[in-house]
């Protein structure tokens, strides 16, 4: 019998041959390919936003030349100075924040109450009311009847025109109702046996258990309220103090695009005409506006991501 000791190098060689023989190399190759593929996918996904940031910090006259990818070629803050040159942008920011917060809170609370009511089998009118709400998703009265309705409600040139029309959402109601249907009925019945009424069951049992779907809906509502500008254009354009951030940015972008034929663009930027024409262009100001409008949502999303991922799986698994 050969009692010679095997060296570490020989041991490593035998281990490699054994791994190759048993097919253990396949998981390593798959993991490496998967890692490289996901890195490429992340780069492709992030590139448009990183390019927008680079363009926003680049001088407008240099941006026209093209060739800007991930790093500004001619650094400048003039694009952001042009956005914040007007004092109205700060008031509009506060209006947008107030609108987004109130719309999100009221929409989540009232829509969840409606969804819980329509999920109760003992409620005899739940089917016809559900059909009525679903019909609103397919048929709309249109812009002109909607305007006259808002006018009859005395909401023209009022802050509440941003809040009241968005308090209930048919699509959100259906999503939340589907999620409530996954809550065990025995849990609700045990609460009734303990003497809890419907409102207490809703507040103490249903509402806390709906956190994942509510976080998802809250993100949808908040993004929609934050990005909306058309209602400000239709209903409150004659009241500057009710203007929203998105509407102000839209007006700034429109004035910048018209600056190609209007040399007086410097009046809204706070510098001489030659400097304004050289440093602020529609492409550069559009990139800066995109960054300014996206930053608040990007700051909120990481805190809601875990709930957002769970909420997207609503209804994907049925027992």
UniProtKB/TrEMBL annotation:
Domain ABC transmembrane type-1 as annotated: residue spans: 93-304
Q: Which residues cross the membrane?
A: 28-50, 93-117, 129-150, 162-180, 201-226, 283-303
Q: InterPro entries annotated for this entry?
A: MetI-like, MetI-like_sf
Q: Which SUPFAM superfamilies match?
A: MetI-like (SSF161098)
Give its localization: Cell membrane
Task: Offer one Pfam family short name for this entry.
Answer: BPD_transp_1
Kindly give the membrane topology term recorded for this protein: Multi-pass membrane protein
Sorted keywords for this record are:
Cell membrane, Membrane, Transmembrane, Transmembrane helix, Transport
Q: Which domain of life is it from?
A: Bacteria
What CDD domains does UniProt report for this protein, alphabetically?
TM_PBP2
Q: Its family?
A: Belongs to the binding-protein-dependent transport system permease family.
Name of the protein described by the UniProt record: L-arabinose transport system permease protein AraQ
Record the organism.
Paenibacillus auburnensis
Q: Which gene encodes it?
A: araQ_35
């Amino acid at each position: 019998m050969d009692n010679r000791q095997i060296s570490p190098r020989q041991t490593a060689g035998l281990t490699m041959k054994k791994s190759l023989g048993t097919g253990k190399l396949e998981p390593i190759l798959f993991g490496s390919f998967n890692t490289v593929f996901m890195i490429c996918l992340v780069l492709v996904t992030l590139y448009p936003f990183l390019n927008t940031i680079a363009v926003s910090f680049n001088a407008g006259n240099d941006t026209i030349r093209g060739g800007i990818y991930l790093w500004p070629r001619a650094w400048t803050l003039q694009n952001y100075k042009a956005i914040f040159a007007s004092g109205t942008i700060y008031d509009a920011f506060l209006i947008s924040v107030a609108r987004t917060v109130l719309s999100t809170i009221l929409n989540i609370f009232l829509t969840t109450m409606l969804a819980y009511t329509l999920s109760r089998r003992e409620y005899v009118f739940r089917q016809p009311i559900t059909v009525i709400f679903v019909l609103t998703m397919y048929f709309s009265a249109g812009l002109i009847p909607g305007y006259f309705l808002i006018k009859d409600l005395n909401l023209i040139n009022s802050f509440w025109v941003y809040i009241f029309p968005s308090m209930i959402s048919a699509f959100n109601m259906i999503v939340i109702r589907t999620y409530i249907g996954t809550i065990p009925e025995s849990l609700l019945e045990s609460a009734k046996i303990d003497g809890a009424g419907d409102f207490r069951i809703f507040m103490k049992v249903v509402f806390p258990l709906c956190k994942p779907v509510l976080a998802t809906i809250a993100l949808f509502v908040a993004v929609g309220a934050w990005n909306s500008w058309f209602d400000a254009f239709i209903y409150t354009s004659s009241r500057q103090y009710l203007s929203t951030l998105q509407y102000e940015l839209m007006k700034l972008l429109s004035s910048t695009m018209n600056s190609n034929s209007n040399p007086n663009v410097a009046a809204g930027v706070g510098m001489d005409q030659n400097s304004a024409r050289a440093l602020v262009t529609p492409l550069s100001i559009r990139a800066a506006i995109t960054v300014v409008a996206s930053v608040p949502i990007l700051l909120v999303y990481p805190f809601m991501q875990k709930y957002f991922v769970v909420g997207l799986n609503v209804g994907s698994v049925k027992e």
